[in-house]
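Duplicate of #3305? Posting structure anyway:
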């Protein structure tokens, strides 16, 4: 083989090798997608079932009985994507989407985003302790909801939205001998279920006893006087 022909063969071999390398780089598998998880709760320790996670107005995952949902996201390492969480009726959904920064964890586990969807109504119990106030109507929202017992105790359960206010009144209209007259107490609903206490002491008006003095007739000159 002449020197010139040897050079041509080497050149052709180099082209083939380079072409093969280029094809291998084009056919390389894409990097695996990123995995993330959402943990949705109402109150702490109370997972929410049926909360949906969506991207671009399309649902991509739904929470199970454990309140968790997992999804896969495609993108470049370090890229930020948004996902919206919508909780079922009876719970308040986050007002803004959740921003997720795509990154691979050292242990390979999916990062967990904790979402809180508080209940729209809080469960409340009102306990009444009315000293010297037996058998009194207990008024809530303008209506009699229960009565105190012989000891002046009563309780009832209601639901109300967080931040709401209400008042409870003890109606003394049928008992004029106790004071104060029909006292009321306001309450403000917080962000958790709660027990409220209406502790009221009544003063009992003492009955006035009318003393009738009997005049005793005197006898002048009696007993030989």
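Output from current build:
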């Amino acid at each position: 083989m002449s020197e010139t022909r040897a050079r041509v063969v080497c050149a052709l071999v180099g082209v083939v090798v380079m072409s093969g390398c280029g094809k291998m780089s084009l056919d390389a598998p894409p990097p695996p997608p990123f995995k993330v998880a959402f943990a949705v709760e109402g109150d702490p320790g109370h997972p929410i079932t049926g909360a949906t996670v969506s991207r671009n107005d399309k649902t991509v995952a739904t929470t199970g009985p454990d309140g968790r949902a997992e999804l896969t996201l495609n993108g470049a390492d370090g890229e930020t994507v948004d996902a919206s969480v919508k909780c079922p009726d009876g719970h308040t959904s986050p007002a803004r989407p959740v921003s997720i920064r795509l990154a691979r964890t050292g242990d390979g586990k999916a990062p967990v985003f904790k979402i809180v969807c508080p209940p729209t109504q809080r469960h409340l119990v009102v306990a009444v302790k009315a000293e010297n106030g037996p058998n009194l109507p207990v008024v809530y929202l303008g209506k009699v909801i229960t009565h105190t017992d012989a000891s002046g105790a009563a309780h009832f359960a209601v639901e109300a939205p967080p931040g709401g206010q209400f008042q409870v009144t003890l109606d003394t209209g049928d008992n004029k001998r106790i004071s104060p007259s029909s006292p009321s107490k306001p309450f403000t609903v917080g962000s958790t279920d709660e027990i409220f206490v209406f502790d009221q002491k009544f003063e009992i008006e003492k009955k006035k006893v009318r003393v009738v003095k009997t005049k005793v007739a005197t006898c002048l000159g009696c007993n030989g006087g």
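Confirmed duplicate; merging threads. The chain has one helix and 16 strands. Residues 3-26 form the longest helix (24 residues).
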